[in-house]
């Protein structure tokens, strides 16, 4: 083969390679943008928890975050002033479109609807959680979604 033909073939091959790389990077970039948009639009449904200490009046708390900790530690999302509750007693987590309750190796255990929690368990509206002598009642809102910016939005 002559030199000019080999040069042309090399240029065509180089152009095809760079065009393929550009096409692949464009589609990867588009997929990353789509995934980012999807994650930005992910919403955590609101959860309301009524906290009833042994002899106090009930306290209603609303949450929008996907993770809620319960315990005696003041840094917990729901601090429980009860000597029978561990520092970090239990945790509520939203994933796979459901709320889950997990006992965090507490000394006295966590009770869900009169049954001990030994592994992460799905919770529903109306469930009662017992941590020590503190009773918590769960209320999930299927129609109201609370975004991380704490804005209420009604779905029809």
Lay out the secondary structure.
Elements: H1 3-40, E1 44-52, E2 59-63, E3 67-71, E4 78-79, E5 90-95, E6 98-103, E7 110-112, E8 115-116, E9 121-123, E10 128-131, E11 134-146, E12 152-154
Parallel strand pairs: 3-4
Antiparallel strand pairs: 1-2, 1-11, 3-5, 5-6, 6-9, 7-8, 7-10, 10-11, 11-12
Short précis:
The protein has 156 residues and is an alpha+beta fold. 24% of the residues lie in helices and 39% in strands.
Largest sheet: 7 strands, antiparallel
Helix and strand content put the structural class at alpha+beta
Multimeric status of the protein: single chain
Please count the beta strands (DSSP E, at least 2 residues each): 12
Supply Rg.
26 Å
| Global mean pLDDT | 85
Give the percentage of residues in beta strands: 35-45%
Order of helices and strands: HEEEEEEEEEEEE
- Overall geometry comes to rod-shaped
DSSP helix fraction: 10-25%
What's the N-to-C terminus distance? 71 Å
Please give the count of helices.
Answer: 1
Uncertain parts: 143-156
What does the model show?
The structure is a single chain. The protein has one helix at 3-40, and strands at residues 44-52, 59-63, 67-71, 78-79, 90-95, 98-103, 110-112, 115-116, 121-123, 128-131, 134-146, 152-154. The chain has one helix and twelve strands, in the order H-E-E-E-E-E-E-E-E-E-E-E-E. Strands 1, 2, 7, 8, 10, 11 and 12 form a seven-stranded antiparallel β-sheet that branches. It has a five-stranded mixed β-sheet with strand order 4-3-5-6-9, with no helix packed on it. Mean pLDDT is 85; it is low at 143-156. The chain has 156 residues and is α+β, with helices and mostly antiparallel strands. Helix content is 24%, strand content 39%. The relative contact order is 0.15.
């Amino acid at each position: 083969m002559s030199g000019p033909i080999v040069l042309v073939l090399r240029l065509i091959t180089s152009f095809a390679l760079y065009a393929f790389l550009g096409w692949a990077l464009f589609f990867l970039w588009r997929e990353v943008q789509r995934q980012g948009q999807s994650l930005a639009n992910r919403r955590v449904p609101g959860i309301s928890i009524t906290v009833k200490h042994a002899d106090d009046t009930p306290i209603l708390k609303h949450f929008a975050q996907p993770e809620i900790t319960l315990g005696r530690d003041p840094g917990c999302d729901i601090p429980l002033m009860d000597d029978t509750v561990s520092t970090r007693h239990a945790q509520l987590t939203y994933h796979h479109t459901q709320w889950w309750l997990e006992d965090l190796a507490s000394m006295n255990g966590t009770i869900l609807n009169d049954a001990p929690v030994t592994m992460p368990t799905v919770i529903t509206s109306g469930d009662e959680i017992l941590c020590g002598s503190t009773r918590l009642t769960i209320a999930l809102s299927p129609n109201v979604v609370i975004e991380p910016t704490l804005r209420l939005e009604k779905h029809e």
